[in-house]
Design goal:
The chain is an alpha+beta fold. It is built from 13 helices and eleven strands. The chain has a nine-stranded mixed sheet with strand order 6-7-5-8-4-3-10-1-11. Strands 2-9 form a two-stranded antiparallel ribbon. The longest helix has about 40 residues, at about 295-335.
Length: about 375
């Protein structure tokens, strides 16, 4: 009886219920969007690392996040190579330079990553298949997600970067993440030519691959003791925790989306509460009649709960469909890895059920005024 009665109450005033559905649809959609951004931002910060082969990452003790890693001497990496647990330790170099060939005469900054191609440190096939290209003098590969402001990215184009002419050898597919509007890969010798005042003695990252069977946490502890001060060593789990904490707690991005998520949840509760409490108030004589003919308060409370649940479910389905469309647009426009997962669907649906429960509990107070004396 509870669900059919709840449905009839909601269907009695279709216009008011329709407006409520629009409101709860927007609230749930906002939860999807805020949650998508909240999780996509740390994933964007981990994009480069997710596409690299390593078990441990050696960084400076000044490391903030991917694009501000600090630097440490190459000799620190040589100490790591001496360990019997280490299979390979690859230096990675970061640098910014002016791309003097942008559209409209602009000079955007390009983020350049230097490494030894022979180490095969990057996972994407589009990089693996072009390692020989990187061996050519003054040649680099450009990320396919580099923004149009950089102009054509065709292979063979010569671009002045910094104070040196560089040839685009091809494109690779990885993503720029938070490294900048444009990203390029270069061999270590070409990186040194592009940044002559820096050289290769100072390293930004050290990607450490362990020998088969070596446990990462144990090896990390041993290497920390052997390496001394001035560096940090992350396991993949620790690196992910560090990046997630940085983007969600130490930047305005995480605070904004985290606050937006909380606000949208509260707004959803209030929207459902408003419509359910209004409907209960308008139907108070009818509820009093039901009590007069023998319906218990518990039965009527369940009816109110069913009203809240019906509203939330009716708003959830179109909100999910709209969120899928918005995620696609966000990925195309921002290049952030905003994706829908089964876990996220269940999390938002669970949040929607909590909205329904909270609004029902807030609305139940009105039923106490539904005494038979109000009718008779």
């Amino acid at each position: 009886m509870k669900v059919p009665l709840a449905w009839r109450i909601l269907a009695y005033d279709k216009r008011r219920t329709g407006l409520a559905l629009i409101g709860i649809f927007m609230a749930i959609l906002l939860v999807f969007v805020e949650l998508g951004f909240f999780y996509a931002v740390p994933r964007g910060g981990l994009l480069l690392y997710d596409n690299m082969r390593f078990d441990l990452l050696l960084v400076s003790d000044q490391y903030e996040y991917q694009a501000q890693p600090g630097a440490f001497p190459l000799s620190q990496l040589d100490r790591v190579r001496a360990s019997t647990a280490v299979e390979q330790a690859t230096p990675i170099y970061f640098g910014f330079a002016k791309w003097k060939g942008g559209e409209g005469g602009v000079w955007p900054d390009v983020f350049v990553i230097g490494f030894e191609p022979a180490t095969h440190i990057f996972i994407p096939d589009s990089i693996e298949q072009q390692l020989s290209v990187l061996e050519r003098t003054d040649t680099l590969l450009v990320d396919s997600a580099t923004r149009p402001i950089f102009g054509p990215l065709n292979a063979g184009r010569v671009v002045e970067i910094g104070a040196r002419n560089m040839t685009i050898g091809g494109q690779y597919v990885l993503g720029t993440g938070f490294m900048g509007l444009g990203v390029a890969l270069a061999s270590a010798p070409n990186f040194a030519r592009l940044f002559p005042g820096r050289g290769l003695d100072m390293v930004n990252l050290g990607a450490i691959e362990l020998k088969p069977g070596v446990e990462a946490e144990s090896a990390a502890g041993d290497l920390r003791q052997a390496s001394g001060s001035g560096i940090q060593i992350f396991t993949r789990r620790e690196l992910e925790a560090h990046e997630t904490a940085y983007w969600t707690t130490r930047t305005s991005v995480g605070i904004i989306f985290g606050s937006g998520l909380l606000i949208s949840f509260i707004v959803g509760i209030m929207i459902v509460y408003q419509i359910v409490s209004t409907q209960v108030g308008r139907q108070l004589p009818q509820f009093a009649t039901l009590k007069a003919i023998g319906y218990a308060d518990r039965s009527l409370v369940w009816t109110v709960g069913a009203m809240s649940l019906l509203i939330v479910i009716a708003g959830f389905v179109p909100a999910l469909a709209a969120a899928l469309g918005l995620y696609s647009i966000i990925r195309d426009q921002t290049l952030l890895p905003v994706t829908m997962s089964e876990a996220r669907v269940f999390v938002v649906f669970g949040a929607a059920l909590v909205m329904a429960l909270a609004s029902a509990l807030l609305s139940v107070e009105s039923l106490r005024r539904a005494a038979p004396a109000d009718v008779f």
